[in-house]
Amino acid sequence: STRTRPCRSCVRGDTQRACTAGARHPGQVPGGRQEKQAHPRPKWDNKLQYLLSCIGFAVGLGNIWRFPYLCQTYGGGAFLIPYLIALVFEGIPLFYVELAIGQRLRRGSIGVWTAISPYLGGVGLGCVTVSFLVSLYYNTVLTWVLWYFLNSFQSPLPWSSCPLDVNRTGRFEAECQASSTVSYFWYRQTLNITADISDSGSIQGRLLACLAASWAVVYLCVIRGIESTGKAIYFTALFPYLVLTIFLIRGLTLPGAVEGLIYLFTPDILQNPRVWLDAATQIFFSLSLAFGGHIAFASYNPPRNNCEKDAVTIALVNSMTSLYASIAVFSVLGFKAGELSTEHGLQTMPTNHLLFPEGHEVECPEVHVHPQPKCDLVSAGGGDVSGTGLAFIIFTEAILHMPGAPGWAVLFFGMLFTLGLSSMFGNMESIITPLLDMGLTHRSIPKEVLTGEWTPEGKQAQWPSRPAEWPPRRLPSMPFAAGGLAHKG
């Protein structure tokens, strides 16, 4: 008998075309008998869900607080040149490789690298391990953001003034008056840091509650794999762009915004080799390369999907988002620096009058000028704008100078939370997908149970409780002890 040819539509993964008449489908041998089929792999509901998931995983908190800092450090023009070069010759090719191997082999990071070569299985295992560790501290940042978000529904904002001392005698906390209101709220009322890292302090109950809430939100979003994250990603990936646009429009209408943008894009020399290293590093951080999340996302695509076009599109969207966020951030920081400079100028205004306690005003022939400290956008804006210092100190202080500060705070920290949540989707998929592919558990176990077991907090509950195992068991809650973030003053 003649052998029938395989169905081309099924082999290509094309679900839009009808099957070839009389063709043999995958899993069917000549004669009509069916081969033993593996469990069908889930697939995205549509292409938009896949693109938004990859963009949400790539566009994270680093686009908001690390890229603007690098532009400010080296000058926008001087940094963008090596950044674009690294994007073309480093970022897009590696990103294309991850999407291609995930889509072609249709497995997670461990299965993909093992299929390429058994000696490369450790690369996939390293991706899972790194994603597990990163998800611990990334969700810690989400916990801080959630705490600030919940405290933003107040007027005035809790970091707008110093609290009274413990005796309630009308005096303010001396520690707050010696620093600033935003620094006091961050270091004392939020983290309650200790003087030295060797002092672990005690667990902060309010942050522990926010930690549990953050993990609960992550679990509910990834409970059904891409079936649930594909629905949640519409909001978590698009909401930050809405907020950035609102901040950009508002920031450009504020006084001092132009000065902030001029400072951002004033070019510096390219001779510093550090700028090339930071540009290449930013590409890895920004595109979330080598974590395995993009491999997992691409494994749910049809085999004939145009992943080359996807790689270029996602990489360009990610880079343009970084630049877009930098403009929005520095327009607001320029306004903040102008407001602080005005206040400082009024306090140090030259005068030729002396006012005595009795109320007698005496004119002096000489003009008395108070010492004028150095005043530029960096010093007036609070120093280098990067990391948690930008989100929880510098930008929160800038919001205080804006009309309707509580509303802007809700938008800002809501944006940060959704940005981090989208990145957590990729981290969780890079952990769960390879483990599911390895068949460590029976397929009859509900996916909700598997997700709960393999999230970092759920996995923590499965670890032994012997004294020798105590340090890793406590790892997820360590940042919420008073010594979790030490600060030496």
UniProtKB/TrEMBL annotation:
<keyword id="KW-0915">Sodium</keyword>
<feature type="binding site">
    <location>
        <position position="286"/>
    </location>
    <ligand>
        <name>Na(+)</name>
    </ligand>
</feature>
<feature type="binding site">
    <location>
        <position position="63"/>
    </location>
    <ligand>
        <name>Na(+)</name>
    </ligand>
</feature>
<dbReference type="InterPro" id="IPR000175">
    <property type="entry name" value="Na/ntran_symport"/>
</dbReference>
<keyword id="KW-0813">Transport</keyword>
<comment type="similarity">
    <text>Belongs to the sodium:neurotransmitter symporter (SNF) (TC 2.A.22) family.</text>
</comment>
<feature type="transmembrane region" description="Helical">
    <location>
        <begin position="122"/>
        <end position="150"/>
    </location>
</feature>
<keyword id="KW-1133">Transmembrane helix</keyword>
<dbReference type="GO" id="GO:0015293">
    <property type="term" value="F:symporter activity"/>
</dbReference>
<feature type="transmembrane region" description="Helical">
    <location>
        <begin position="238"/>
        <end position="263"/>
    </location>
</feature>
<keyword id="KW-0325">Glycoprotein</keyword>
<feature type="transmembrane region" description="Helical">
    <location>
        <begin position="80"/>
        <end position="101"/>
    </location>
</feature>
<keyword id="KW-0812">Transmembrane</keyword>
<feature type="region of interest" description="Disordered">
    <location>
        <begin position="21"/>
        <end position="41"/>
    </location>
</feature>
<feature type="binding site">
    <location>
        <position position="58"/>
    </location>
    <ligand>
        <name>Na(+)</name>
    </ligand>
</feature>
<feature type="binding site">
    <location>
        <position position="423"/>
    </location>
    <ligand>
        <name>Na(+)</name>
    </ligand>
</feature>
<feature type="binding site">
    <location>
        <position position="419"/>
    </location>
    <ligand>
        <name>Na(+)</name>
    </ligand>
</feature>
<feature type="transmembrane region" description="Helical">
    <location>
        <begin position="283"/>
        <end position="300"/>
    </location>
</feature>
<dbReference type="InterPro" id="IPR037272">
    <property type="entry name" value="SNS_sf"/>
</dbReference>
<dbReference type="GO" id="GO:0046872">
    <property type="term" value="F:metal ion binding"/>
</dbReference>
<feature type="binding site">
    <location>
        <position position="318"/>
    </location>
    <ligand>
        <name>Na(+)</name>
    </ligand>
</feature>
<keyword id="KW-0769">Symport</keyword>
<dbReference type="GO" id="GO:0006865">
    <property type="term" value="P:amino acid transport"/>
</dbReference>
<dbReference type="InterPro" id="IPR002438">
    <property type="entry name" value="Neutral_aa_SLC6"/>
</dbReference>
<feature type="transmembrane region" description="Helical">
    <location>
        <begin position="312"/>
        <end position="335"/>
    </location>
</feature>
<dbReference type="GO" id="GO:0005886">
    <property type="term" value="C:plasma membrane"/>
</dbReference>
<feature type="transmembrane region" description="Helical">
    <location>
        <begin position="405"/>
        <end position="425"/>
    </location>
</feature>
<feature type="transmembrane region" description="Helical">
    <location>
        <begin position="50"/>
        <end position="68"/>
    </location>
</feature>
<protein>
    <recommendedName>
        <fullName>Transporter</fullName>
    </recommendedName>
</protein>
<feature type="binding site">
    <location>
        <position position="59"/>
    </location>
    <ligand>
        <name>Na(+)</name>
    </ligand>
</feature>
<keyword id="KW-0479">Metal-binding</keyword>
<dbReference type="Pfam" id="PF00209">
    <property type="entry name" value="SNF"/>
</dbReference>
<dbReference type="GO" id="GO:0035725">
    <property type="term" value="P:sodium ion transmembrane transport"/>
</dbReference>
<feature type="transmembrane region" description="Helical">
    <location>
        <begin position="206"/>
        <end position="226"/>
    </location>
</feature>
<keyword id="KW-0472">Membrane</keyword>
<feature type="binding site">
    <location>
        <position position="56"/>
    </location>
    <ligand>
        <name>Na(+)</name>
    </ligand>
</feature>
